[in-house]
Amino acid sequence: MDADGISLRVAHVLPRIGDQASGPSYTVPRLCQAQAQAGAQATLHVLAERRPAPAVGCALHRYPLLTSWLEWLGLAPAMARGLRRFAADLDWVHNHSLWMLPNVYAGRAATRAGCLLAVSPRGTLSQRALSISPMKKQLMWRLAQRAAIAPAALFHATSAAECADIRRMGFTAPVAILPNGVEIPSLLENVQHSALQAHRKLLFLGRIHPIKGLPDLLRAWRGVQDRFSDWELEICGPDDGGHLAQLQVLAAQLGIARVSFSPPLFDADKIAAYQRADLYILPSHSENFAMTVAEALGAGTPVIVSQGAPWSAVQEQRCGWWTPVGEAGVAAALQQALATPSMQLREMGRRGRDWMQRDFGWDGIARRMLASYAWAQHGGTRPPWIHLD
User: Fold this and answer.
1) Which of 71, 169, 293, 316 is the most buried (most CB within 10 A)?
2) How remote is the C-alpha of 386 from its chain's centroid?
3) Same domain, 60 and 114
4) Positive/negative CA dihedral, 65, 70, 74, 77
5) Helices then strands, each counted (H, E), the chain
6) What's the CATH number where 241 sits?
7) What domain range is 263 assigned to?
8) Which residues pair with 96 in a beta bridge?
9) Is 165 exposed, middle or buried (0-12, 13-18, 19+ CB in 10 A)?
10) How far apart are CA 60 and CA 180, in angstroms?
């Protein structure tokens, strides 16, 4: 293997890739693809789902569930066997996410084969994430999950906050802090910008889930809607657990004007939605990375992001607002952002797009991850993004 990790053999393990609204369903296959394009022998191992697998740019291995009754757990003995076979010829197994059996199979296969294990929690160790179904997670942690990832030679975090989560759980292995990459779309010439429409647009795009802080957004919007009558709010995404209906009831109770709820968008339609919007907003209580922020910035749209997401740099890069979590913080940011002239917002969007192109390209992220593997395996000069504390 080369000192920069280019020629290594790595298997990426993720339970699912079929949920297009989930960040890891896009970012993990894209990382695998970028590593393969850089020269590594990178493969992706996932559970087979009812829906057809989306196209991925790397070798894909799918394993059937033993029974749909335990789909939430991901019981797939065929995957456990397949990973053990693959691991015998690997340098690394890289596990992504936690709390399903594929995330246990990955660690066990690496340990049994004597290859190295990398672990990307993908937000699953945040205190907010741990508070969801806590009894199931505590049981899984004690029975299998902790032991499966304890031998990790390397952890990967997408932010300093996630690195702190890893340390809080007692792990001392080196942590590579690397963001997710982002595709930079072409600017669509045929997009009808809101400057040509009756209202300017504030967009939320993502899962409709309580962790996203959308009740805070609706209550904050009620407080600013009369002052900014030239703005409209669009909430776009898939319902998660019936939360959409709760938001619709809340909007009616609050007497909110100029708010719409739209179904999820993907691919070119999603890019067009970002580019039609004047502002993107993410009022989440907790985010590991918040891929939609990177996507919006890559599309040239400035952002409002809560401090539940690790995007303080939007202020340093002058392409958005980073505001405290909760109704008051969101309302304060809206007061400033909605009063910003359109030309200034477009300039902020250009700065954000330039930033994404400069620092978040997939080729660079993949090569830094490969260099992280190589350093953890062979030593040498420690890359500056790897943290020991």
Assistant:
1) 293
2) 20
3) yes
4) negative
5) 15, 14
6) 3.40.50.2000
7) 194-359
8) 120
9) buried
10) 20
Distance CA(282)–CA(321), nearest Å, equals 10
Q: Which two tokens stand for residue 355?
A: 């930033």
Quick check: 33 and 58 in contact, CB under 8 A?
yes
Rounded-to-integer distance, Cα 22 and Cα 238, Å: 10
Find the length of the chain: 389
Q: Do residue 244 and residue 331 come from a single domain?
A: yes
Q: What is the biggest distance separating any 2 CA atoms in the chain, rounded to whole angstroms?
A: 64
pTM for the whole structure: 0.79
| Together in a domain, 14 and 139 | yes
DSSP string, 301-314: --EEEETTSS-THH
133 and 229 both lie in a single domain: no
Q: What is the pLDDT of residues 157-212, one digit of tens each?
A: 999 999 999 999 999 999 999 999 988 888 765 555 545 567 899 999 999 999 99
DSSP 239: B
* Neighbouring residues of 15: CB distance < 8 A, sequence distance ≥ 6: 46, 47, 74, 97, 100, 102, 103
Q: CA-based angle 215:220:221, to the nearest 5? A: 95
Question: What is the number of structural domains in the chain?
Answer: 2
CA distance 232 to 199: 6
Cβ–Cβ < 8 Å for 262, 224: no
Residue type, 372: S
Rounded to 10°, the helix 291-298/342-359 angle is 110
Q: In which element (H, E) is residue 201 found?
A: strand 200-205
Dump pLDDT digits (tens) for 268-311.
Answer: 899 999 999 999 999 999 898 899 999 999 999 999 999 999 99
Kind and range of the H or E element at 93? strand 92-96
CB 94 within 8 A of CB 118: yes
Burial (Cβ within 10 Å: 0-12, 13-18, ≥19) of residue 34: buried
Burial of 186 (0-12, 13-18, 19+ CB in 10 A): exposed
